[in-house]
Amino acid sequence: MRWLKSRIDLERARHYHPPMLKRITYVSRFAKPFSESELRELGELSAKNNKDIGVTGVLMTSGGVFFQVLEGSPEAVDQVYSAIAADTRHTHLVVLELEIDVPSRNYPDWSMKTIDLDASSHVRLLPLKVMMETVFEQQLLVDKMLWAIDRTLKHELRKD
Ligand SMILES: Cc1cc2nc3c(=O)[nH]c(=O)nc-3n(C[C@H](O)[C@H](O)[C@H](O)COP(=O)(O)O)c2cc1C
Q1: Is 21 exposed, middle or buried (0-12, 13-18, 19+ CB in 10 A)?
Q2: pLDDT at 3 over 80
Q3: Is the pTM of this model over 0.90?
Q4: Is the CB of 47 under 6 A from ligand 1?
């Protein structure tokens, strides 16, 4: 009988696939200035909420821009992202990367690590500031190009 049980365990192990994760990386703009304490409160509330539903990630700010990574089960990430997208404290959300079927987390120990680059004097973090600004400028460029494509298409199609 024991051999039967271990056979069954073996079969189960063979068919077991770890649950796949989803990861969303986005940038957005502050709708209004945030004070250091407001940012801290936002980070603390986010970490608390995320812990309950197994979401991890990082929330970084610099020069009026948010950069956030959210990772967890697809349901949990969708739930948090929907709340975030509806939050009027920021605007112009642009998803930089949407990953599905991710096998492991990049930030397993952070329910929501919040980094205020404007308040940080950490020299090692300075390149991040430059990178975030560059990402945001690129995003503005993409916005402009999308607007131009849309306008041109509408204009051209009107002729048909
Ligand atoms: C840039 C930004 C990032 C946020 N990130 C999170 C987050 O990771 N987790 C979270 O629960 N809420 C986050 N929030 C807050 C949500 O938008 C929303 O206010 C919150 O989930 C509501 O929580 P409550 O129902 O407990 O009041 C974020 C808000 C902003 C503006």
Answers
A1: buried
A2: no
A3: no
A4: no
